[in-house]
């Protein structure tokens, strides 16, 4: 029988497809490979339930490359105060990618309990800026607020390895038992505890655990897309419409950085990202 389902898990060339309450473990149709069609977790598909074959992939509403997932409506950028240390660079990079993909980000902070008083205050001050420019910031202790964010969404968890993505999901859903890692081991060996992307389905919630990463780079983007993803820059229009805010005379973004209205680290990260295109 041909039915519609959604890919919720992929391990090498097998795909778990959810059809109502049932899971069918499928392979792809032979001609997918010739046509260079590679299914993604999140794809809505038509499957043959007897042959256990994915026959067709429906058009994607959106997709991201790292982690490779599709049809997302929201993203949690899971970020630790310490261990691994808070990094505006990584945060800005993820926010940039999400802005470009048109996916709403929510910053979820973890490991407040491990931060020294100074680190705690320093990070909190920086987070105030992100709230000011329009990003929602929650803490992994805010279980009910986080659940509200998840309702009626397909949410992907992104963030550095060891930040606490799987731990957060285990805490939210008591019957889950995702593997979590010792951070010293994870960082020391560059190892990820979560090895594959998986959609967890609970009533009206779909949430995707993913392996973390330690470095990211912009692959197939244009530098103008990166510029436009820095949402607060738009508040300060420049004399030149296509100003890149790098060394143009009379650039209002540069002025506002000097005045302290644009966070210095945001601007420095921006310049670094733009530099990546030059090489
Ligand atoms: N003290 C403290 N430890 C935490 C917190 N959140 C997570 N951890 C610990 O941090 C370690 C790493 O957590 P994981 O949930 O495995 O991290 P992850 O983001 O899923 O990592 P990957 O799967 O490798 O991407 C585990 O030992 C957790 O117990 C927190 O808020 N406070
Ligand atoms: Mg994990
Ligand atoms: Zn400018």
Number of helices: 9
For the largest beta sheet, what order do the strands appear in spatially? Answer: 10-9-8-11-13-12
CATH homologous superfamily heading of the largest domain: P-loop containing nucleotide triphosphate hydrolases
CATH architecture grouping of the largest domain: 3-Layer(aba) Sandwich
| Mean pLDDT, all residues | 91
Quote the distance from N terminus to C terminus: 52 Å
Q: Helix-strand pattern, N to C?
A: EEEHEEEEEHEHEHEHHEEHHH
Largest sheet: 6 strands, mixed
Heterogens: guanosine-5'-triphosphate, magnesium ion, zinc ion
Number of domains: 3
β-strand amount: 25-35%
Q: What sort of overall outline do the alpha carbons produce when their principal axes are compared?
A: globular
Radius of gyration: 20 Å
What name does the CATH topology of the largest domain carry?
Rossmann fold
Quickly give the structural class.
alpha/beta
Poorly predicted segments = none
CATH class of the largest domain: Alpha Beta
The number of distinct β-strands equals: 13
Helix content: 25-40%
Describe this structure in words.
- This protein has 279 residues and is α/β, with parallel strands linked by helices.
- The chain has helices spanning 31-34, 88-101, 117-132, 143-150, 165-172, 183-188, 223-229, 252-259, 264-278; strands at 2-11, 14-19, 22-28, 44-48, 53-57, 63-64, 69-70, 74-80, 104-110, 136-139, 154-158, 198-202, 205-209.
- A six-stranded mixed sheet has the order 10-9-8-11-13-12, with helices on both faces. It has a five-stranded mixed beta barrel with strand order 1-2-3-5-4. The chain has a two-stranded antiparallel sheet with strand order 6-7.
- It is globular.
- The protein starts with a strand and ends with a helix.
- 32% of the residues are buried.
- The mean pLDDT is 91.
- Guanosine-5'-triphosphate (GTP) binds at residues 110-111, 113-114, 140, 159, 161-167, 180-183, 186, 192-194, 211-212.
């Amino acid at each position: 029988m041909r039915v519609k389902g959604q890919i919720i898990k992929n391990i090498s060339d097998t795909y778990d497809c959810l059809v109502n309450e049932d899971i069918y473990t499928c392979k792809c149709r032979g001609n997918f490979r010739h046509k260079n069609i590679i299914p993604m977790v999140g794809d809505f598909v038509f499957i043959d339930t007897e042959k256990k074959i994915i026959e067709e992939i429906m058009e994607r509403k959106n997709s991201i490359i790292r982690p490779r997932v599709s049809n997302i409506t929201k993203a949690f950028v899971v970020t630790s105060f310490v261990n691994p240390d808070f990094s505006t660079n990584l945060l800005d990079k993820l926010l940039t990618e999400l802005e470009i993909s048109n996916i709403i980000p929510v910053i979820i902070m973890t490991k407040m309990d491990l931060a020294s008083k100074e680190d705690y205050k320093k990070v909190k001050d920086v987070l105030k800026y992100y709230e000011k420019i329009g990003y929602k910031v929650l803490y992994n202790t805010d279980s009910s607020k986080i659940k509200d964010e998840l309702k009626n969404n397909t949410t992907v968890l992104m963030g550095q390895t060891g930040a606490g993505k799987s731990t957060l999901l285990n805490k939210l859903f008591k019957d889950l038992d995702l593997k979590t890692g010792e951070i010293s081991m994870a960082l020391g060996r560059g190892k990820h505890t979560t090895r594959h992307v998986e959609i967890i389905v609970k009533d009206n919630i779909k949430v995707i655990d993913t392996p973390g990463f330690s470095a990211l780079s912009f692959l197939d983007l244009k530098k103008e897309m990166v510029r436009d993803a820095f949402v607060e820059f738009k508040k300060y229009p420049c004399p030149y419409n296509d100003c890149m805010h790098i060394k143009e005379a009379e650039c209002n973004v540069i002025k506002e950085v000097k005045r302290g209205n644009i966070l210095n680290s945001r601007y420095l990260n921006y310049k670094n990202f733009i530099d990546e295109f030059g090489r």
